[in-house]
UniProtKB/TrEMBL annotation:
Cited Gene3D superfamilies: Periplasmic binding protein-like II
Keyword presence, Manganese: no
Keywords assigned: Signal, Transport
Signal sequence extent: 1-23
Protein name stated in the entry: Extracellular solute-binding protein
Keyword Isomerase attached: no
Lineage: Bacteria, Bacillati, Bacillota, Clostridia, Lachnospirales
Similarity section: Belongs to the bacterial solute-binding protein 1 family.
Protein's organism: Enterocloster hominis
PANTHER family: ARABINOSE-BINDING PROTEIN-RELATED, OSMOPROTECTIVE COMPOUNDS-BINDING PROTEIN GGTB
């Protein structure tokens, strides 16, 4: 079974996962070049370098290879700024960048990972989850837990959520993308609706909205992954963090009471008309669901923070009406988990100078870099001490840090085949072509095919 998993990972890594890269799914709020902020050196030494204890010499020239998938020139400028800051601490290091678009990057990283560690760049971008875990199991990725200890306190815990396995850290997150409920504050005000804090209150709000002539949720699910967001939110908030861990380590079946109940609630919302008619035929990627929200046909919209950049670019006037809240608690404990994913930068296990590479990770994710990210694209890393002036971005940040725990997107958390199954079966739930019980059982069969039976 491990051989089967290895073949799947190396042959299909990152392929077919529409939600991957959601942190940057929206267009940047600005296309202007991002000016570098003042450098805050890593805490490894007075100048940020580690010459004293790592064997790195100031009179020797070094090269550090760095692969990433910057999707636009604005993000490329952010990386260039980070490298400039890094070079203040390491002026004798040349960072050789390889920038590829999304599809080309997926192909290239798949090829080098399949070939083994010799061709893996020193620092490379990935999406965390089980694909990263598989790289770790095959000895391709460095454990950076101790390497980043000097500056770990400069980050919130969610920075390391999708790259931590068995309490060891194998990457640093960038472009953290929390998924929340966006809502039209004016509609809520006109109808005297309060932000719901429980699932029962959400059901009541939806009923009131429908009665007033609104579609409660904008949803274009032709692309499958948008609908998976709510199914995941329901599942994680019903089953809690314990279920999340159980699914990942294969001690809990996907055919469990929480996922069945999540499917029942989703199917119930669908029967009540809380989503647009023909939701599985509406193209989210073409803007179909956003148009329902902008035109005030729908009052709420479940999406990642990539929506903020979309909204600024597409309907800046409507942006002033938008508020956010986390998907409400679904269990008696009142705990709220939030679905959030993003990109991860990891270090090759063959990197000759991992301390230097770890310091480079710092400059790729620290508060200075995060400030660039916020100013240009309304996104952020897990770095503390950033200045957020946009109230909506602040709400997103607060939703994330106040959550009791976070769950990665399921099509990033698990291997691509299982991620695709999640999207297919979720679409069937919205369409009413499969029962919640059938969906949960089918997910478990897919999990067995990918990972083997329960432990």
């Amino acid at each position: 079974m491990r051989k089967r998993l290895a073949a799947m990972v190396m042959a299909a890594v990152l392929a077919g996962s529409s939600m991957m890269g959601c942190a940057g799914s929206g267009e940047p709020a600005s296309t202007a070049a991002v000016e570098p902020q003042e450098t805050a050196p890593a805490k490894a030494g007075e100048d940020g370098s580690r010459e004293a204890d790592s064997g790195i010499k100031s009179d020797v020239t070094y090269t550090l290879s760095f692969w990433h998938g910057a999707t636009d020139d604005v993000r490329q400028q952010m990386y260039d700024n980070a490298i400039a800051r890094f070079n203040k601490a390491y002026p004798n290091v040349t960072v050789e960048q390889t920038r590829l678009d999304s599809d080309a990057y997926k192909t290239k990283i798949k090829t080098v990972m399949g070939a083994g560690a010799a061709d893996i760049p020193d620092v490379f971008m990935n999406w965390g989850g089980d694909v990263l875990k598989s790289y770790i199991e095959y000895g391709l990725v460095a454990d950076i837990t101790d390497l980043i200890a000097p500056y770990k306190d400069e980050y919130y815990d969610f920075e390391f959520g999708i790259s931590t396995f068995d309490d060891r850290i194998y990457g640093m997150g960038i472009g953290i993308a929390p998924s929340v409920v966006f809502y039209n504050t004016e509609i809520f005000k006109d109808l005297n609706l309060d932000v719901p804090r429980t699932w029962e209150e959400l059901d009541t709000v939806c009923a009131r909205l429908k009665e007033a002539g609104y579609i409660p949720f904008a949803l274009g699910n032709k692309n499958k992954w948008p609908g998976l967001l709510e199914y995941t939110m329901l599942g994680v908030n019903l089953g809690g963090e314990e279920m999340s861990k159980g699914l990942s380590d294969r001690t809990m079946s996907f055919d469990n009471e929480y996922f069945i109940e999540a499917g029942r609630r989703l199917a119930d919302f669908s029967r009540k008309g809380y989503y647009p008619d023909g939701t599985n035929g509406i193209d989210h990627n073409a803007g179909g669901s956003r148009m329902l929200f902008y035109n005030e046909v729908a009052a709420m919209f479940i999406m990642t923070n990539g929506f903020l950049s979309n909204c600024v670019a597409e309907d800046a006037e409507f942006y002033e009406k938008v508020g956010t809240f986390p998907y409400p608690a679904c269990n008696d404990s009142g705990e709220v988990g939030i679905v959030a994913g993003g990109n991860v930068f990891s270090i090759s296990s063959r990197c000759e100078y991992p301390e230097m590479a770890a310091d480079f990770l710092y400059y790729l994710t620290n508060a200075d870099f995060s400030q660039d990210y916020i100013d240009a694209g309304n996104s952020f890393t897990g770095a503390k001490d950033v200045r957020i002036e946009d109230p909506l971005v602040q709400e997103q940040f607060d939703n994330l840090i106040k959550a009791d725990w976070t769950q990665n997107f399921y099509d990033q958390q698990f291997v691509a085949e299982l991620g695709e199954a999640f999207k297919d079966y979720t679409q069937a739930l919205y369409g009413g072509t499969m029962t919640p019980e059938e969906v949960a059982a089918s997910l478990e069969r897919a999990a067995v095919d990918c990972y083997g039976p329960l432990k």
